[in-house]
Amino acid sequence: MNAVSERSGVSVYSSSTIVLVGVCFVLSGATGLIYEVLWVRMLGLVFGATTLAVSTVLAAFMGGLALGSALAGKLARRIKRPLRTYGLMEIGIALYALLVPLLFRLIDHFYVLIWQQLHPGYFSFSLWRFMLSGLVLLVPTTLMGATLPVLAAAFVRSSRDSNSVTRLYACNLAGAIIGTLAAGFLLLPALGVRSTIAVAAVLNVIVGMIAIVLQRRTNAHSEHQEHPVNLEKNHVNPVTNFWWFAALTSGFVTISAQVSWTRTLTMIIGSSTYAFSIVVALFLIGLALGAWLVARKDRSARLRSAILKVEAVTALSLLLSLFVLNQIPALLINLGLRLHVSSWAGLLALQILSATLLVLLPALLMGMVMPLVLVWASSDRASAVARVGRSYAVNTIGAIAGAFITGFILIPKTSTRFTLLFAAICCVVVACLAYQPGGRDPALKRSVAIALIPVLTITLFIIAPRMNLADLSIGAYDSLVRVLAQTREGVKEDDETAGPNVHELLMYVEGPTATVSVRRDQNTVSMAINGRTNASDSIYDMPTQVMLGQLPLLIAPKIDNGLIIGYATGVTVGAMLQSSVQSVTCVELEPGTIAGSHFFNHVNNRPLDDPRARLIIDDARTFLRVTPNRYDMIVSEPSHPWVPGVANLFTQEFFELGRARLSDDGVWVQWVQIYQLSTESLRSVLATYQKVFPHVLVFRVGGLSNGKDLLLVGSNRPMNLDRLTERLKDPRTAAELARVSLKSEADIRSWYVCDESRLGPAVAGAKINTDDNMRIEMTVPREAFQPSMQTNAGWVQSLAR
Q1: DSSP-derived pairing of the beta strands 223-230 and 504-510
Q2: pLDDT at residue 234 tops 50
């Protein structure tokens, strides 16, 4: 190695300073995850809740991290006071974070202008979204990405311990765990989005000030030391290439596995914000434990041997996860019923157990890879900072590739099973390349190791079990919650909640945004999205779906055009088309539901064959924001207002967005369930709706004394039922209503509950659900197991008295 020496002011840090810096980096990791959670949520509202939008946000976030780490790796060796620089970076992140909401609002107006002026297609518009989100997030994420290399510069200069950087990495992961749990379980439920941003910004400023003070204290005891500078820091050789490849593969495998398990666990433990936080936190715990195990002792002497063993065992753990995955649905249901779980804490414990069994061991093993790379990067103190920065950047690039390839190619085009096996094969490749034989003919032995890759690949695919799609499709957690609630209310258990292995699976599609399944239970065909039943052809669900399409036709003064949010089985779209309406536009987020709707052709009137129907695949909020069209009738069909994504369609801001797209006397029809919601949460949903629409009619599907769904009709102008007689003269309308036993005007009026004059006083004082406080999304998962159906039914009946 060719090296020269240069004199530089290098600070020797005391043990107390090192501990304080570690604490600061824990807090830095916490705020980084808090910001990521917040920004993904905020950009989900601005750019749409599609997987493509969220993934581009994630890619932009990681791209900034990669850029920051790469730049810092090159420049950090020139920084004389790294702690001061780190402190200024933290303060800069805080100041920019406070500006982000304003920047998002400005971009919102900008990309609406793009849509209206350029009329881009779906994918070109998505590219605009990517560029805009990347532009907004570039500054803070670049600063975040630079923090590790800058601190590495300080620690490498003052310590000969090759594990010092690995310990920093572990501290940051520990902070990420704290940030994920704090954001999901504490800050967002208690404070909302804006206040959570303020809390994180304050923490950044505190961390920055501490780092600056520590630098000043250290400067008073600084000494000049000889610091070797590697003149060949950019030299590339086969050894270096291997470690870059290991870092790249580690990022890809880690994110690919996380995306796969998150998608699959959504089917098992539910899709609430809390369930998502559990999965992310457990994954980070595994990564942190892996980093901690590496940092416990010096592994620099046998690095290649260590990474070979870790990668080989990681591949086996990914294979094992497929076996575990098939057992978790039945385990969750049987444990919940056997233990008679009767609290949210108990249900939460079941979710944690299920996710732990699947995620923790593989995540721990994955968490050991990048720290081993950092040990190698820190082994040469002269080029350590540059190596650390480049390793971190390459790892992040692998993570970006993992997010996109897994989300848009591997899972939608193949399956979760194939994706996990592909990740295992990547581990096998790294393990084989890490092999360094001794003795005679090492080249021959390495060739044999590489030749084993296709053999091991074939073996993995032969050994790996098929996923039990029938068990996954029932939504184990939601089935358990329904059974528990029905048991506490004394209601007979539904057939569909009986447990695994009682259903005939007709379709299972892992789409770009959700997993859609269609199953038959005796004589009922039902559609589930992410394991949660959304609609069926049963006598209980058909009246709701049909009336959603017909009710606006009976009430709206004009019925020239309609917009329906959500396609699902296609029954509602088909019901609205059974009239003189001139056009019906339907906005559906998940293409998989279109394929599933063909299993409901016997009840949906085949709406896609009607030339008046227009189908748009996109997010509803995005469409309403950019379209200049106004509609006589808008129907919002998605239910379960606490589910992430769907929850965005039950806020004050969304209803205001929809009201702006109504014609002057247009009507908005909203489906609201009265089960799995406390009375207070139900009042919150109704109060939010009534705050936006000054005139409201409330209907209960099935009549005042029966039914589990409400249909709300809102408008800017007063409404009544005076047009019923006239509209029922249309034979298509009459025939469509007759098939759900609504054969006369009296039958329809029997569903009527009240108008705004009685609804307003009944919901007075209820908390309004907004994009900021996310009240329903944060509160309802804690209540879903409670026996609320009968209580809510009584409250609804009281509105009609």
Answers
A1: unpaired
A2: no
Distance of alpha carbon 266 from alpha carbon 269, whole angstroms = 6
Cα distance between residue 713 and residue 693, in whole Å: 9
Rounded CA-CA distance 594/586 in Å is 11
Q: Under a CB-based contact definition with an 8 Å cutoff, are residues 386 and 49 in contact?
A: no
Nearest CA to 307 out of 429, 422, 395 is that of: 429
Mean pLDDT of the region 302-321:
94
Q: In this structure, what DSSP letter does residue 706 have?
A: S
**Of 426, 90, 360, 369, whose CA–CA distance to 243 is shortest?**
369
Burial class (CB in 10 A: 0-12, 13-18, 19+), 239: exposed
Please report where in the chains the tokens 């769907």 appear, as a residue.
646
In 403-557, DSSP assigns E strands to 504-510, 515-521, 524-529, 532-536
DSSP3 helix / strand / coil % (the chain, rounded to 5): 65, 10, 25
Q: Is 7 helix (H, G, I), strand (E, B) or coil?
A: strand
Residue 185: in which H helix or E strand, if any? none
The helix/strand/coil state of 577 is coil
Q: Under a CB-based contact definition with an 8 Å cutoff, are residues 416 and 326 in contact?
A: no
Give the single-character DSSP code of 82. Answer: H
Q: pLDDT for 322-379, tens place per residue?
A: 999 999 999 999 999 999 888 888 999 999 999 999 999 999 999 999 989 988 888 7
Amino acid identity at 119: H
Residue pair 552/618 in contact (Cβ under 8 Å)? The answer is: no
Closest residue by Cα to residue 268 from 347, 191, 212, 192: 347
Q: How far is CA 745 from the centre of its chain?
A: 45
DSSP state at residue 556: -
Going by C-alpha positions, the residue among 163, 188, 209 that lies closest to residue 28 is 209
**Identity (one letter) of the amino acid at 614?**
R
Closest by CA position to 638, among listed 605, 685, 700, 584 = 685
Hey, what are 33's tokens?
A: 């995850």
pLDDT of 703 above 50: yes
Q: Which residues contact 265 (CB under 8 A, 6 or more apart)?
A: 275, 279, 354, 355, 358, 359
Pairing type for strands 561-565 and 583-588 reads parallel
Q: What CA–CA distances, in Å, run from 110 to 39, 49, 113, 133, 416? A: 18, 18, 5, 12, 37
Distance CA 665, CA 612 (A): 22
> How do 532-536 and 561-565 pair as beta strands?
unpaired
Using one digit for the tens of pLDDT, what is the confidence trace for 6-54? Answer: 334 444 567 788 888 889 999 999 999 999 888 878 877 765 555 555 6
Starting from the edge strand earliest in sequence, which strands make up the sheet with 532-536, in order? 504-510, 515-521, 524-529, 532-536
Q: Is the pTM of this model over 0.85?
A: yes
pLDDT band at 61 (very low <50, low <70, confident <90, very high): confident
Distances in Å between the Cα of 515 and the Cα atoms of 358, 530, 589 are: 19, 5, 12
105 CB neighbour count, 10 Å cutoff = 12
The token duo for 365 is 């093993």
pLDDT of residue 6: 38
3-state secondary structure of 673: strand
The beta-strand segments (E) located in 618-694 are: 631-636, 662-673
> What DSSP assignment string belongs to 323-348?
HHHHHHHHHHHHHHHHTT--SHHHHH
- Between CA 635 and CA 563 the distance in angstroms is 6
Helix axes of 303-338 and 344-378: crossing angle, nearest 10 degrees: 180
∠ at Cα 179 (293, 290), nearest 5°? 10
In DSSP notation, 202-251 reads HHHHHHHHHHHHHHHHHHTT-EEEEEEEETTTT---HHHHHHHHHHHHHH
pLDDT tens track for 611-626: 999 999 888 988 898 8
The C-alpha atoms of residue 462 and residue 417 are separated, in whole angstroms, by 12
